[in-house]
Specification:
Length: 157
């Protein structure tokens, strides 16, 4: 499956970095930014999530909740969140179920056979859970266009 603008985002339930279950549907009534990232403790992922952290005032003013999603286990995400002062939930999709459902799997990540991670992708949802913005980088070493994301989220406010 691949996502399309105007479609309802598939619901999911994943464990966050505090081992608390989080369901996407629980965020209805808020705009949501799903930030899929390949791996904690890598340079570009750190830059991306810290940029989102530093943009929280703008995102909060747009009534937007950020959810980071990776295939990392909750303990890695917890250490990554602590090291980088990230306060929004970092969700662990260690089974790759959500990554696959959203069509974002990146096989042979970093040239390692059979290692599947997530593409770097940003998905913005409106308060009803409808996809309003999608940005997928084909190269995991490329950061997302933050200005385009912030403009898209502000348009939802």
């Amino acid at each position: 499956m691949s996502l399309a603008i105007g479609q309802t985002a598939p619901d999911f339930e994943l464990v966050d970095h505090t081992s608390t279950k989080q369901k996407l549907s629980e965020y209805r009534g808020k705009n949501v930014v799903l930030a899929f990232f390949p791996a904690a403790f890598t340079g570009v992922c750190q830059k991306e999530l810290c940029t989102l952290r530093d943009s929280m005032d703008t995102l909060n003013n747009s009534s937007a909740q950020v959810l980071g999603i990776s295939a990392d286990i909750p303990f890695s995400n917890a250490a990554f969140a602590k090291q980088n002062n990230i306060e929004f939930p970092l969700l662990s999709d260690y089974t790759l179920s959500t990554i696959k459902e959203y069509g974002l799997e990146f096989p042979n990540f970093a040239g390692l056979p059979d290692l599947t991670r997530s593409h770097r992708a940003i998905v913005a949802l409106d308060k009803q859970g409808t996809v309003q913005y999608i940005q997928i980088t084909e190269n995991p070493g490329v950061e997302p266009d933050y200005d385009a994301l912030l403009n898209a989220v502000q348009a939802l406010a």
